[in-house]
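[Discussion] Sanity-checking designs against the backbone

I'm trying to build intuition for which residues belong where. Below is a structure token string of 217 positions. I'd appreciate it if someone posts a full sequence so I can compare it with mine line by line.
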């Protein structure tokens, strides 16, 4: 009985080209259509492993870990100074799913910087913030603002220790007026002390004590 042989079906050329174009492993710089460029490791045509991305529009640079096309792991993000064109570090730390997550340090314009925990791109957990005026907040953060227990130390060494909510003093707390040698302990609501007690605290060592001491009840 005669055997009929059919010609083997060949896959379209675009399939072969696409297979050859799949990026995997360490590659030279790859340019995107918009001018962005990436140099580093790939997996299944996605940025994966160690690599450096440069965004053409802003000039920003990210160098660090990638996972399936997103920043994930440890890395640093920098932007060029608009005047000097020198690169200034913005964030160094951990990332997850293309957002700051875990421990990291961020530098803000004006010399302010934050070091501590992040979640979903926001300050969340424990952290320390150095403000431009010399104040320092150290404590808990929630949704990018002080929330929970924390301490704010002012440039004149006066400080508040207590509860915070939405970035404001809220709940039980103590305010140490070390320049006057006094201590206020009470309840706060949206940065305003509502009720409490004011007593002398280290008045003899204070640089600018009040004229008369607070009488004892």
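Best answer:
Here's mine. Compare freely.
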């Amino acid at each position: 009985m005669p055997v009929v042989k059919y010609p083997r079906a060949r896959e379209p050329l675009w399939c072969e080209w696409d297979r050859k174009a799949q990026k995997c492993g360490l590659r030279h710089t790859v340019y995107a259509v918009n001018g962005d460029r990436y140099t580093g490791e790939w997996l299944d045509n996605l940025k994966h492993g160690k690599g450096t991305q440069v965004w053409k529009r802003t000039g920003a640079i990210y160098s660090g870990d990638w996972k399936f096309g997103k920043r994930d792991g440890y890395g640093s993000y920098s932007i060029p100074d608009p005047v000097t064109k020198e690169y200034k570090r913005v964030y160094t730390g951990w990332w997850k799913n293309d957002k700051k997550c875990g421990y990291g340090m961020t530098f803000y314009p004006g010399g302010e910087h934050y070091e501590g925990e992040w979640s979903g791109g926001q300050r969340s957990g424990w952290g320390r913030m150095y403000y431009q005026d010399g104040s320092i907040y150290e404590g808990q953060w929630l949704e990018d603002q002080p929330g929970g227990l924390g301490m704010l130390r002012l440039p004149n060494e006066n400080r508040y220790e207590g509860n915070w909510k939405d970035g404001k003093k809220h709940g039980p707390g103590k305010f140490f007026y070390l320049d006057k040698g006094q201590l206020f302990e009470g309840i706060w609501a949206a940065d305003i002390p509502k009720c409490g007690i004011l007593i002398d605290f280290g008045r003899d060592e204070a640089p600018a004590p009040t004229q008369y001491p607070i009488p004892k009840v």
